[in-house]
Write a structure and sequence with these properties.
homodimer; alpha/beta; 6-stranded parallel β-sheet; 4-stranded parallel β-sheet; 12 helices; DNA-binding
Amino acid sequence: MQLTMESKAPKITDVARLAGVSTATVSRALSKPETVAESTRNTVLAAAEKTGYRVNLSARNLRRQRTGAIVVLVPNIGNPFFSEILAGIETALSEADINMLVVDTRQAHMKPQLVLEYLHATRADGIIALDGSLPDAILSVASSGSGAPPIIFACEWTPKGEFSSVRANNTRGGALAISHLAGLGHRTIGMITGPDDNVLTHDRSRGALKALAAESLVFNPLHRFSGDFSLDAGARAAQAWLQLDQRPSAVFCQSDQMAFGFISELALNDVSVPDDVSVVGFDDIAIAKRFIPALTTLRQPRKKIGMSAARMLINHIQTNTSPAVETTILEVELIVRGSTKAFAG
Amino acid sequence: MQLTMESKAPKITDVARLAGVSTATVSRALSKPETVAESTRNTVLAAAEKTGYRVNLSARNLRRQRTGAIVVLVPNIGNPFFSEILAGIETALSEADINMLVVDTRQAHMKPQLVLEYLHATRADGIIALDGSLPDAILSVASSGSGAPPIIFACEWTPKGEFSSVRANNTRGGALAISHLAGLGHRTIGMITGPDDNVLTHDRSRGALKALAAESLVFNPLHRFSGDFSLDAGARAAQAWLQLDQRPSAVFCQSDQMAFGFISELALNDVSVPDDVSVVGFDDIAIAKRFIPALTTLRQPRKKIGMSAARMLINHIQTNTSPAVETTILEVELIVRGSTKAFAG
DNA sequence: TGCTGCACTGCAATCGATTACATAAAGCTT
DNA sequence: AAGCTTTATGTAATCGATTGCAGTGCAGCA
């Protein structure tokens, strides 16, 4: 005569009892169905259904020595640029029944300790880093191999140490931006870059400079504005641009956000894009096609980058292969919109 | 004479052996330091340090009957609107040493099964839902109380069932938008809403209508465009607006994204904001102040919403209180920028 | 001195599922 | 029909940390 007020979550023994088999059989029926006779399997499945059984993940993970989760290190969750990459990662992970832990590394540079926690295998089965500038302390642990889970870089990467990565063809993107502008007749082209020590900055700039050379154009160092991919950086660059005696007739912004900041600040000073200056962005975030003017930019396959990185990681985890370093480079696409037009000088 | 190629991760017994104490003491020294004599504690800490010990979370969670993680149900991770809320949640969680699992509920409406998985206590210690329109199947499980972890709604909420929530004062926001426009002399004000069955739509509209009444203005149902908070919905509303014989001189868009879509589509048709029509948004996402024109909008304290929801949930979890329903409403702020100006009719 | 209480530590059960190994039954081979 | 596989299931050890309970030793007190 027992009132079951708060019936506890059913466990495997409950299912086993109801089905009249051992817990081993239940476990097998659920995770390796083909190893169990069909009739038994059906009995077990029915019992599991009836009790509402759900496997206890802590127990499973403890036994299997896995965590069932990977962590994604994001430089700044608040930045919409990353959200679609996260979406891609999540898509791939959910297929493999792996959870995604999201960690913001912004303060990580203050206290690497905090992030180091995640590098231990007890926290996560693997790591996807969207932040190429992790503290050295972290990288050295990650590459030491002793018990640290596999790590894969997406979008950004790090030149220090050998890690797998998935990224866009940034160099080609830089080149495409420049040849588009040059093709429109622009001879004086400026550039707003990311942080000077950033790998994306480096590759995009390299591609841009190569394309300038190919067009026999010279790049004036005064026309290089160094930013940090943010809206405000673009606005600051606009201020600098306004001060110039000789203004470039076109500017390649290494992120859409900087392009928006740039265009917006120019607009406040009655300089019009594209009439007075043409602007190319990079990323093709959602708002780009609705900005005024709509932004010519380089589309990065962000969702695909996320998915590829996740699949690569899942593969590492499941096969438990030693992390053979592989680099996947996905193509970018030039999207021409209203922010660029032929030079009318 | 053993070569330790791949020394396994140290466990509590290793620390105990090195420190010359029992595992119980190690455990206590690490998690309840005050219950252990100082000298012992130092020995243990030194041993832990030396071995590089990290607690195995699966084991701890199994024993403690917790998961150490909460899940956040996001309608669409790809939507930048949510990223700052996530950032707020993450901030609060990391203080409490709890992990954040992010799950996209987009397909959830197709297969509620998938999300139901997360409602079992073995997956997460609690849930924050940013999606007010979860399938009924999910809600009923959540409110059943039997073993389901506590759930808290943030931003959105659901009228079905009693759940705690943290949200902005949407009604007041709607009212502020209208009185701002009315104060500028606009007498014919249109509105682009979210989905018809959405709670945000409902509250913002209610506030707006109340304010219209207070200003003795009548609302023409033809001036109501129903959208879904997206850029494209705004653009579609613009098309509809263009078809009108009697165009409102001002439009209240219930999200910034829709405002951008609206303004952008109007611009393509040579209608200028704010010269031809004033526009107010809602949310104040980052790009709002850099749009052209800069957008007048209602700022939601997104980060604060995230933090509050997380703290509320942490409190539920740690005190293990029965989920007493509490609703926190945070104030919105009208940010006046360039997209609205006095009616010059 | 003998007793009580307190501070500290250890023993061992426990959380729930997985899986190596053992066993049993059935099928196959010659 | 004996022996050998193959298939299906059960037994029990195991993953690593936590914690209720019990024990030890020492201080305080009458």
